[in-house]
Amino acid sequence: MLIGIPKEIKNHEYRVGLTPESVAEVCRHGHSVIIETNAGAGIDETDAAYEAVGAAVVDSAEEVFARADMIVKVKEPQAAERKMLRPGQILYTYLHLAPDPDQTRDLVESGAVCIAYETVTDAHGGLPLLKPMSQVAGRMSVQAGAAALEKAHGGRGVLLGGVPGVRPGKVVVIGGGVVGFNAAQMAVGLQADVTILDRNPETLERLSNHFGASAKIAFSTGSVLGELVAEADLVIGAVLIPGAAAPKLVTRDMLLSMNKGAVLADVAIDQGGCFETSKPTTHAEPTYVVDDIVHYCVANMPGGVARTSTYALNNATLPHALAIADKGWQQALAGDPHLLNGLNVWDGRITCEPVANDLGYDFVPAVKALAA
Fold this sequence. Notes:
Blueprint: E1 2-5, H1 20-28, E2 32-36, H2 47-52, E3 56-58, H3 61-67, E4 70-72, H4 79-82, E5 90-93, H5 101-110, E6 113-116, H6 131-148, E7 170-174, H7 178-189, E8 193-198, H8 201-211, E9 216-219, H9 222-231, E10 234-237, H10 252-255, E11 263-266, E12 287-290, E13 293-296, H11 306-327, H12 329-334, H13 337-340, E14 343-346, E15 349-350, H14 353-359, H15 366-371
């Protein structure tokens, strides 16, 4: 199979679909790789490094899309890239379709086979291809929130860890999954006053056992959330419903009760955001202010630490990429029900039920794609 790696073109996105080490592994399996020139520059990998492990460097994304059987990316294809997809071509990347009707429409019209990292599952009900970026984003959310709290950036002027004689900043983490757990770890490490909210009793018990007295653990209700948000210096939105749009848990009315200069960091923004006032931002302009509350809603947070993120992502995505290349997509998905869950679009149809429900498409079970 010929695998193509275009350079990422989303604003301030520095990651790349495959590292040189991953390319070497693909070539050892007997496949060919073409990569757009300078695609690895954001992780400090040169064209020569890719050529040394067997990839062919080409001058344009157009050539990558025109020739490759499978496109391996990181972020969802942008409008110009979606126009280059063709029927039957495999697209293997993050998609986050539920809050993005334009992308969904274009992928449906392309006829491509679109496999989304974020809906591939594992035997334990987890999302193994989303997990490494959730870990990165959770940890980054505290760094970003701490910076946004600085007065020069529009924040309250609060140091999350405080100093002797001055109380630490109050951090509220909504959601105790992978993002929330990693955000809480970072905030606790900074010696902030941390509260984690969730509704799953098993998650609450796990968090309580792990953090002990280092963080408060609370069952999330509307009234509890409202009280905690009103007192918070930093609120981190870490809610995920796999494949579906995130619920709007913090309303605009709640902002009126918050301290001026408090910060909302919405890590759920890829799925539409869990704050009513959230809208996607970029690393170039990461924040904006609504009702005196600073919002940090960068939709590709891990792109800011591209080298760490790319290597962590490849550790998770490479085995499935090899399976697809070795067996063909239909056989690979037929032999792995967890990879089958990653199929979002096939032959102009939506095969991910939450996406179909959120965007009003007819749902076609992914197993029908295998039988066709």
